Amino acid sequence: MLRFSKRVEYGLMALQHLAKRGGVSTVREISEEYKISYDLLAKILQDLKRDGLIDSYQGVRGGYALMLTPDSINLTRVVGALEEDSGIMDCASGASGCDRSGTCSIEAPMHKLQATIDKALSSVTVAQLM
Amino acid sequence: MLRFSKRVEYGLMALQHLAKRGGVSTVREISEEYKISYDLLAKILQDLKRDGLIDSYQGVRGGYALMLTPDSINLTRVVGALEEDSGIMDCASGASGCDRSGTCSIEAPMHKLQATIDKALSSVTVAQLM
DNA sequence: GAATATAGGACTCTTTCAGTCCGACTTCCT
DNA sequence: AGGAAGTCGGACTGAAAGAGTCCTATATTC
Question: What is the C-alpha to C-alpha distance for residues A80 and A8, in angstroms, rounded to an integer?
Answer without folding.
Answer: 10
